[in-house]
Amino acid sequence: xxxxxxxxxxxxxxxxxxxxxxxxxxxxxxxxxxxxxxxxxxxxxxxxxxxxxxxxxxxxxxxxxxxxxxxxxxxxxxxxxxxxxxxxxxxxxxxxxxxxxxxxxxxxxxxxxxxxxxxxxxxxxxxxxxxxxxxxxxxxxxxxxxxxxxxxxxxxxxxxxxxxxxxxxxxxxxxxxxxxxxxxxxxxxxxxxxxxxxxxxxxxxxxxxxxxxxxxxxxxxxxxxxxxxxxxxxxxxxxxxxxxxxxxxxxxxxxxxxxxxxxxxxxxxxxxxxxxxxxxxxxxxxxxxxxxxxxxxxxxxxxxxxxxxxxxxxxxxxxxxxxxxxxxxxxxxxxxxxxxxxxxxxxxxxxxxxxxxxxxxxxxxxxxxxxxxxxxxxxxxxxxxxxxxxxxxxxxxxxxxxxxxxxxxxxxxxxxxxxxxxxxxxxxxxx
Length: 431
Known about the structure:
Elements: H1 2-7, H2 12-19, H3 24-29, H4 40-54, H5 61-67, H6 70-75, H7 78-87, H8 95-120, H9 124-139, H10 148-160, H11 174-180, E1 188-193, H12 199-212, E2 216-221, H13 226-238, H14 242-247, H15 254-269, E3 272-275, H16 283-296, E4 302-307, H17 321-339, E5 343-348, H18 369-375, E6 378-384, H19 385-388, E7 397-405, E8 411-418, E9 423-426, H20 427-430
Parallel strand pairs: 1-5, 1-6, 2-3, 2-4, 4-5
Antiparallel strand pairs: 6-7, 7-8, 8-9
Helix pairs in contact: 2-7, 8-9, 12-13, 13-15, 16-17, 17-18
């Protein structure tokens, strides 16, 4: 019947449209938008079908006809065309393949429109925007879709056949893992502290522990060079004072030199990518970089670390700083969800924390906190008593406050922070 319909000159999308008319399950599973169909009549029919299904009305030529006014009915070819569509239904087994074709042909048309628009008034700003738009169009919805039935079946399987170990990427810290079950895929994790409290050091420790479990780490360094970060990695792994390590052989024992060389060999075997070429990078550059690497290695576990939020730029001209921050956090949250990877985003805290008797940070101390609180799945705030009081009884103890966790508990975890090597330890191990 499909071949017969094509010989009659019926458009290909006719067959896609009609194939979902009589199966509510397929209508629910369809991810296409009405504007992605080429012909206006198919846009109208598809939109009507989705509206009927949303209102729990059976979908067939009669209900579609009754839902449309006379003028619209004429525009789509009247009842005759609806019946013709229904009579041309092929098997629903190829449903997902048809969706893919409709989406891909829409992308081609859209890309042509974008290029034609640029040709009418070319300039460097529009060229940059064209590149961004084309890249976003090419990468849109690359991950694929699951029906709700498939998702529920996966949950059912997980309930009866639970996986051993953590559901997320191992942070390397026992108490932290108990509260979070690791860094979860699709989450934007904000790690915030005042300058020099230890947020970059902790982020590097998270990255080190992820690498130990064969996770690929992409580290965007807006403040430090790759050389500086590698010195920190070696210092932490080899347990050598960072200041001594920088002085090299003249201050190190032979044993320490051997440990440093061993640490270099370990780091060299990790898939740890440091991107410190950030003078002109924007949030869109970061997104494209990450998308490209994930596409090249789709079966690999990834952890992205960005140091830090307030140094990231946007391509858009936005006068208000809080709206710029909102644009950045929104894009990074969408990226984490799209690629199903955790992203750790470092952030500074406001100076207001310094003016309080209790120096422990709160979420309201986040710079432009409203946008960050809204987009973040997890917010971690760091505090050290010995940062403010050198003679504190809690020397080398850092308070890791999980102030927000969208899908888990909140509360405090204490870690030992060895500042000389930038190494963090579970409190039990460090005591």
